[in-house]
Amino acid sequence: MRMKTTCLTFLVLLLILSGSADALSQPTLSIGQSSASALQRVQVPVTLVTRSASLATLRMDISYDESLLSDPVVTVGPAGAGKTLLTSALRPGAVRISLFDLLNAPMADGTIVTLAFTLTSSAPGGTSVGLAFDATTVGASDPAGNDIPIACSDGAISIP
């Protein structure tokens, strides 16, 4: 009986670790952390870690609380240099971001885009405002146009 329990425990651990290994080998997009007070402009980086994957295009939707953040502006970061940036407001509180180029050159690790917002006068001190990926719309492709799975990590703006 003890041998059976040990084998079962080993199999469960193996399954957990094999799933974790897949997540660790996937490219990752992360929204950073930042801090600002009401009525201040704040910038938040979105970083890419390719984990040696060749990513030629990226697309993502990011949502935020439009009652606390206004005037969203997206700019290309150093890791997105040479890429064309397309943005659109999906609805209040959500922005769609696409990066690509005609040569399908691979992207580098680092800050891929920077998000800038103005905190509204109603932004309460002592809280934070979440910035979240819509995981169903985040995607990437390699230079041949094949989909590449990508993991995401949300971020926030702290209001002191």
Describe the structure.
- This protein has one domain (27-159): Immunoglobulin-like.
- It is α+β, with helices and mostly antiparallel strands and 160 residues long.
- Helices cover 15% and strands 48% of the residues.
- Strands 2, 4, 6, 7, 9, 10, 11 and 13 form an 8-stranded mixed beta sheet that branches. A 5-stranded mixed beta sheet has the order 5-8-3-1-12, with no helix packed on it.
- It is built from 1 helix and 13 strands; from the N terminus they run αβββββββββββββ.
- Mean pLDDT is 88; it is low at 3-21.
Could you outline the blueprint of secondary structure elements for this entry?
Layout lengths: L1 H24 L2 E4 L1 E3 L5 E9 L7 E7 L5 E8 L7 E8 L2 E7 L9 E10 L7 E7 L5 E3 L5 E2 L2 E3 L1 E5 L1
Parallel strand pairs: 1-12, 2-13
Antiparallel strand pairs: 1-3, 3-8, 4-7, 4-9, 4-10, 5-8, 6-7, 9-13, 10-11
What fold name goes in the CATH topology slot?
Immunoglobulin-like
Shape: elongated
Question: Which structural class fits the helix and strand makeup?
Answer: alpha+beta
The poorly predicted ranges are: 3-21
End-to-end separation: 57 Å
State which percent range the strand residues make up. over 45%
Oligomer: single chain
Instruction: Please report the first level of CATH classification, the CATH class.
Output: Mainly Beta
Q: What is the makeup of the main sheet?
A: 8 strands, mixed
Number of domains: 1
Series of H and E elements: HEEEEEEEEEEEEE
